[in-house]
Automatic annotation (TrEMBL):
Protein name, entry field: Copper homeostasis protein cutC homolog
Superkingdom of origin organism: Bacteria
InterPro entries: CutC-like, CutC-like_dom_sf
Gene Ontology MF annotations: copper ion binding
Pfam families linked: CutC
Family from the record: Belongs to the CutC family.
Length: 223
């Protein structure tokens, strides 16, 4: 499965028309992705049938949120759920950067049958293994991770271990600098099956259809 992270409408439309399996729709790339505009989402859903997962993140910086920000997350999730979101992407940390069990549980419960992915906040936790075990207990369907490192390539050995240990219980979505130039080696080393990329080539600003095609040829050769 190849997911494309789209930070604005141009990349979203490019990816939705491409051979990608789904997109993660968000805003503000320079902040690592925030909750997107609901009207832009409604527009995309009115035209395209490909699955759209929505980032639920009110502010940049760390992944601990005030009570006001958490209420906003709850409200946004319900609004996008009503508008037809195919999945949600979020992650809340608590003291010591551990997974906040209570708040994440509340959002998963609000999502109901809509699958939830825990994003790269997992790479901030002090123990990846404990973190992933908690996500499984909470009901997350997937976790986006670079293996606790800055990029997936740097974390390739950790990703290999995570996939070997937990891929039968939760989808390990390999992300963090994944591009057409390294995805083949990443797939071979990690034995991963799920990959996440912005598909933005160096010195460019938007997702590139040819970049997506080249990655999908590796992820799903029979596509």
């Amino acid at each position: 499965m190849l997911e494309i992270a789209c930070f604005e409408i141009t990349s979203a439309e490019t990816a939705l028309l491409s051979v990608a399996d789904r997109i993660e729709f968000c805003s503000e790339q320079h902040l690592g992705g925030l909750t997107p505009d609901i009207e832009e989402f409604r527009y995309l859903k009115s035209i395209y049938s490909k699955p759209i997962y929505v980032m639920i993140r009110p502010v940049g910086g760390g992944f601990m949120y005030s009570e006001t920000e958490f209420r906003e997350m709850r409200r946004n999730l319900l609004e996008f759920k009503s508008a037809g979101a195919n999945g949600f992407v979020f992650g809340i940390l608590g003291n010591g950067n551990s997974v906040d069990l209570q708040r994440n549980s509340e959002l998963v419960e609000l999502a109901g049958a809509v699958p939830c992915t825990f994003h790269r906040a997992i790479d901030r936790t002090p123990n990846l293994e404990t973190g992933v075990q908690n996500l499984i207990k909470l009901g997350f369907r997937a976790v986006l991770t670079s293996g606790g490192k800055e990029t997936a390539w740097e974390g390739r050995e950790q990703l290999k271990d995570m996939i070997a240990s937990y891929a039968h219980r939760i989808d390990i979505l390999v992300g963090g600098g994944v591009r057409a130039g390294n995805i083949s080696e990443l797939k071979k080393i990690t034995e991963g099956r799920h990959f996440h990329s912005s598909a933005i080539p160096q010195y460019e600003s938007f997702a590139n259809e040819e970049e997506i095609r080249r990655m999908q040829m590796v992820v799903r050769p029979d596509y």
